[in-house]
Amino acid sequence: MLDNHDISDILTHYAKLYELHAGNPFKVKATAAAAYNIKKIGEPLATMDQEQLLKVPQLGKSLAPKVYEIIQRGSFADLDALIEATPQGVQDIMRIKGLGPKKVELLWKTVGITSIPELLDACRENRLVEAKGFGFKTQAQILSDIEFKFSNEGKFHWAKLSPIVEQLEKLLSESSEVKQYEVVGDFRRFSEIVESIDVLLVSDDLQLVSEELSGSGFELIDCDDTHYILKYAEAVTVHLYMTSYERWGNDLLEKTAKPEHLTLINYNSDSGDFEDEESLYQSLNLPYILPELREGLNELQHLDKQSDLIAYKDLKGVVHNHSTYSDGLHTLEEMAKHAKGMGLEYLGICDHSQTAFYANGLKPERVLEQMKEIDSLNEKLAPFKILKGIESDILNDGSLDYTPDILGLFDMVVASVHSNLGMDMEKANQRLKVAIENPFTSILGHPTGRLLLLRTGYPIDHRYIIDTCVANGVAIELNAHPYRLDLDWRWIDYAVNKGALISINPDAHQKEGLSDMQYGVNVARKGYLTAKDCLNAKSLAEFLAWLQIKKQTSA
């Protein structure tokens, strides 16, 4: 079933193709705006009928029928006509970051480029520098973006594959042909990016298993006696590996761990058969090592931490969230009640600051208006507490987005970069350093600004930035949105050893997004984070005490 993001992507593609073919500018903007806004709708559009879709304010009478058609068959008539009129290669070019319809039209109709390979050749041969609106810098960026796109083909966010895995597990659990199974590989290790869904199973007949799965969208691509390769929705690769009860432990380890982990633990596949992983590790004089830690890095140095790794149940509050005051979908009260209903003790509301005009950032008068509502809600919802926060843009010179008298009103400030992302490391380090050293900064938000599979983020010297945070008593965000997961988990161990606190923040723009903290917990465990080193694993009293100490030391 298509989710709201899938529907948004289809409408965005339509808006770009429509603009490419000189469509009505007003209609282009209206469609693009609707595509952006429906990402924030909490209820799945795919569950609605035509009458319900007509009542969705983000759609209206013109787009509701198109969305209904998308739900039914994945496209709609107007889009079909534009696709028919546009070479596939040109459509591929449109999906390259930074190339809007106007530039694509010039490349297609003036320069005569109709495919990504042709565009790649043009960049490498410096044939774009003379074209209007291009130049050496733009050409170099296009080349970099093409290479980035190619390197990420066939890769998916862990969260994107999670519902497919759930569906697959349900099918396997109901199959009379499957005696035992386990999802393995990158997914079992909580890798932030997953290239395929790998399943180990015990069965007498893989062919019958694949035939059962084919009725639910899993198409057989290739096979041999013990390995079947399927495709789901013509996009996601699924590997089915057959094993025996006797070798279950061996194959479970081999199909889950990175090769570097197997080398690290001196594993030899021929050293015996094991029915479970516990006895296999025991034969190597090792305790059982959790699947998410089997990376071949420094897991053997942290064996004593395994029982203390952060768990979702350890989180006492949720920090860095947005409401309808800026670009969130739900009201402040709705966000707070949902957090309270999750059993949490506090909610940090951190709407966008005034410079973020694109996100309806808060001018000082609206800051005061929100704080007044927070006071009222805190009386109503006690002992649950809403903390008065802001996600302040880090401006180009590193300064924060309000004057000191306004910044001093907040309980906490999450400082984040949202603009001028094309920095070199020297500029990025300096910009972040100034923000971190600002006495009002409580937490450094998504430190590199990366969007997994979409952009790499600006380069930073992680050690320098982490050390600067520690020196200034600033916590570091692990942004738990599955497209960010920034701070990268590979730096958590270093940060904690230096004395940093990590805050697992969902950056939620709707109440359902509060649960994204689970994705942050998953990768935090890979970085050996424990509850004592997690800021929002503190109780409300402990969190308030930390904020008070931060303010006192910064005064």
Describe this structure in words.
Strand 9, helix 17 (364-381) and strand 10 form a beta-alpha-beta unit. The model has no long low-confidence stretch (mean pLDDT 93). The chain is globular and about 70 Å long. The chain is α/β, with parallel strands linked by helices and 555 residues long. Helix 1 (4-20) crosses helix 7 and helix 16 runs parallel beside helix 17. Helix content is 43%, strand content 14%. A 7-stranded parallel beta sheet has the order 8-9-10-11-12-13-14. A 5-stranded mixed beta sheet has the order 2-4-7-6-5, sandwiched between helices. A two-stranded antiparallel ribbon has the order 1-3. It has helices at residues 4-20, 25-38, 50-54, 60-73, 77-84, 88-94, 101-111, 116-124, 136-151, 158-174, 185-188, 206-214, 248-256, 259-264, 277-283, 332-341, 364-381, 404-407, 425-437, 462-471, 492-497, 517-526, 540-554; strands at residues 156-157, 178-184, 193-194, 196-203, 218-223, 227-232, 236-242, 317-321, 346-352, 385-393, 412-416, 443-444, 475-479, 502-505. The protein has 3 domains: 4-86, DNA polymerase beta, N-terminal domain-like (DNA polymerase, domain 1), CATH 1.10.150; 156-304, 2-Layer Sandwich (Beta Polymerase, domain 2), CATH 3.30.460; 312-554, TIM Barrel, CATH 3.20.20.140. The chain has 23 helices and 14 strands.
Q: Low-confidence parts lasting 5 or more residues at pLDDT below 50? A: none
- Architecture (CATH level 2) name of the largest domain: Alpha-Beta Barrel
Structural class: alpha/beta
Q: Count of DSSP helices? A: 23
Largest sheet: 7 strands, parallel
In total, the number of domains comes to 3
The CATH homologous superfamily of the largest domain corresponds to Metal-dependent hydrolases
Overall pLDDT: 93
DSSP strand (E) fraction? 5-15%
CATH class of the largest domain: Alpha Beta
Strand order of the largest sheet: 8-9-10-11-12-13-14
